[in-house]
Amino acid sequence: MRRCIGMVALFVVLIACSEPKKTQTLAEGVWRAELMVMDNEVLPFNLKVNKKDDGSYTMQVMNAEEVIDVDEISIKGDSIVIQTPVFEGYLAGTFTEKSIKGEFVKESLDRIVPFTATFGQENRFYSNGPSTENVSGIWETHFSPNTEDEYLGKGIFLQEGDQVTGTFRTTTGDYRYLDGIMEGDSLKLSAFDGSHAFLFTAKVTDSTMTGTFYSGNHFKEPFSATRNDGFELPSPDSLTFLNEGYDKLAFTFPDAKGNQVSLSDERFANKIVIVQLMGTWCPNCLDETKFLVNYMNENRNKDLEIIGLAFESAKTEEKAFEGIERLKDRIGVAYPLLLAQYGSYDKAAAQQKLPMLNRVLSYPTTIFLDKKGEVRKIHTGFNGPATGEKFEEFKKDFHQLVTQLTSEE
Q: Who is most buried in 199, 242, 249, 374, counting CB within 10 A?
């Protein structure tokens, strides 16, 4: 036994005295990355690697019109960690000049997805033949059809040649900037933003679509769709409301400094207050937060306050506040972000924190209070920039409502 211990000790000394590995370099330009999801399916996305004058790297994640700048990249020897902006998810592995192999990790949810990337491959999906169908238009979509989990979606797509872009809207938000191809009668679309990894595969006819939606390697569900240019989802302003017996919203939650913040605090008296139910893990919440920050920067309104209530997946309070502060720093959030829940963003548990609401259906959910503290509107979900016209409609309605509430005594 002593001899074995001695040999192990000698091995450790030899390793410690050996020269450190020379740091590898990454090829600059476009890479094709792949996440290994379920059913042996591959979820691809594109990265662009840029080398700075000081030798460090930045990257860009590209999904259709969306470009996500990544500037938190750590390299040691042949090991690399790519921290996605705002979200906790990161890519970690080993690399050579033209390849990376590792995992996409979300620690708070104990999720690990195998990951590879290859330099010089610019196609997101590879096609073995031209398209025989065209998905441009509006699709009435049913996810998990004919089950108790069924919910509606609205597919909005544009096809140019074999290339397809667009998104699915749902009552709780959109499925990001989807980017893909039509190969024969087979549709493939994907998106990766550092929080969510989405893949949609489907068989298409001129009027129907039948397929599978994959979220990372932990979830999948079937969906079906039919062409319907006149289809619209239920109004996002009708899905969440105050329960009978309640006429106002009330809560008290802590900020990062330990201060308990309440709607009854003097700073909110006689002001319009927008309450945002959100999470730092949530891309649609990030889209809305960016909108709210820009609105406050461009419209100085002494009668308007915003409060964010964060429902976090982080396992500890400390980690949850780290995520909140990271979001505030990266996006420039000046309004209070309070920790409403950590360890889970379960919506039933969230509703218990706010029992005056009939339900919490989505993150984000946005509640508009007038100067008297009365709830004037509750907007479920958020249709971000990927939805185009719907995003513009939201911005117009938001400006009109805030202007109306400001003019009231």
A: 199
